[in-house]
Amino acid sequence: MSEEPRFTLDGRTVPFQDGQTIMAAALAAGIYIPHLCFNPEFTPHGSCRVCLVKVNGRMQASCTTPAAAGQVVQSEIDEVREIRRGLLQMLFVEGNHVCPACEKSGACQLQAVAYYVGMLAPHYTHFYPRRPVDASHPDALIDFNRCILCELCVRASREVDGKNVFAVQGRGIKAHLVVNTPSGKLGATDFSLSDKAAQVCPTGTILSKHSGYEIPIGQRLYDRKPINVVGDVAALAVSKGGRRHD
Ligand code: FES
């Protein structure tokens, strides 16, 4: 019987199966690699690049790079950490992320990953984009200021909910999340808080209207333990209504 193929990740041996990515194999082995646009339930998107690792000396996105036998993968090294920190710093200045006032604070994957990579200040000049808040839906609110264009809600709505409520329009700096209706308003769709799309946002972009601050900031998921210990899967396994903040 042939042995399972393996690669090394920061010196640890990681077994994998044919077709698995480095990210998937690492997660299966219980090793955390920071990520934002990746969710094990969806096809990898490879857009945020936060999951960057060094593979045989070259920087690659671990969520889209297939695992191969004998690969030498480096994740927790200064060179990689520095790039990840820069990416997070750019994400924070591109949008308007006001963590102390955000309902998602402490349960926000973006915030938790920023802490994990050692980002304590934005570093770059803020863009302060003018983005709307859509409160047209009876149960949900979209604050476009917090969107990082991971497209998880786009994929979830299309692939799981079968509704295709969201899309990304524009390119480069002009890329932005839109609601797929002539008015562009969430209230004109059949979006529901029980949709998968309501449960996968790694930031506080999509929120429930009918609850807030039920768990005090300071006692939430990532307030208690860092994301490399909790993992994002726990955060994304949200309760009905997309409001898991425990
Ligand atoms: Fe891999 Fe976003 S998590 S590119």
TrEMBL record:
Pfam families documented for this protein: Fer2_4, Fer4_Nqo3, NADH-G_4Fe-4S_3
Gene Ontology biological-process entries: ATP synthesis coupled electron transport
Domain 4Fe-4S His(Cys)3-ligated-type, chain residue ranges per copy: 79-118
GO cellular component assignments: membrane
Subcellular location: Membrane
Coiled coil: none
Domain 2Fe-2S ferredoxin-type, first and last residues per copy: 3-79
Primary location group: membrane
InterPro entries, A to Z: 2Fe-2S_ferredoxin-like_sf, 2Fe-2S_ferredoxin-type, NAD-red_Hydgase_HoxS_gsu, NADH_UbQ_OxRdtase_75kDa_su_CS, NADH_UbQ_OxRdtase_ferredoxin, NADH_UbQ_OxRdtase_Gsu_4Fe4S-bd
Molecular-function GO terms, alphabetical: 2 iron, 2 sulfur cluster binding; 4 iron, 4 sulfur cluster binding; metal ion binding; NADH dehydrogenase (ubiquinone) activity; oxidoreductase activity
Needed co-factor(s): [2Fe-2S] cluster; [4Fe-4S] cluster
UniProt keyword terms in alphabetical order: 2Fe-2S, 4Fe-4S, Iron, Iron-sulfur, Membrane, Metal-binding, NAD, Oxidoreductase, Translocase
UniProt similarity note: Belongs to the complex I 75 kDa subunit family.
Subunit text: Composed of 13 different subunits. Subunits NuoCD, E, F, and G constitute the peripheral sector of the complex.
Official protein name in the record: NADH-quinone oxidoreductase subunit G
